[in-house]
Amino acid sequence: MFSTETIYEVVIFSVGDTKAGTKMGKLQLRDTGDSSLLNCILWEETLNRLDPKLFRSGNLLRIVSGSFNEKYNNCLVSAFELIKEAKLGLDKQERDAAFKQLSNYIDSIQNPDLKKFVSEIYLQYEDKIKISPAAKLMHHNYVGGLMVHILECLAFADVNFPLFAAKLDKDEVIAACLLHDIGKIFEYTIDTETGLIDYDEDFRKDWLTHSQYGFSICMNAGFKTIAKMIAAHHGRAEWGAIIDLNEKDLEPELYLVHHLDDLSAKFGKINVSML
Description:
275 residues
């Protein structure tokens, strides 16, 4: 049963258009008491009155005024109280430290051509990499989230290298981890004041997904195995994979980056409250 004393954590927030041409906000909240989810609608008039910072992922809110359905799992909200503001993500010092860790992995690559290729990408787009989220909704959706996600994938890879040394090229796995989501620095935008994330429509005019971007730049540079690992990292075609891991007779290394990525997305520092 709803109570005005209930404290909710912001899970997801997005704004779209109604059929009437007005704006509508969709907000998903998690009850901090029992972890149940509440889906909320905010009409344009409400959106215009409220500070977008309210809806940062991880914020703690109280519903001051709202109209609930009979199951109390949907609510039309007109007023909130901010109880606690979440972090935007990594602060500058943390971002610099994370980027340094990624640079150390690049320096560990033995193949000089591959090291140069990855290093040039990271140096060219350092500013974007440092603030980019790893997703809009699902995981690591905060400032610096992409770096946290990539570092988790690399840490999981480090654990597996001794087990699979005979079948893995360590340089290729490190490069695939570093580049598997690099297209996300263009696919997403993040407001560093509010922490709100959206899709970059210009990116979507030229590319289908970030996976296609990563696959393409690696293929064009002649790193075909890395390109294929990136193409398979979403696992299934319906999940956005270019290479579906249900296909037969695939190289064993194609499975690894998918599982590293999936482990981070499910068990890593998924949301900003874990930082």
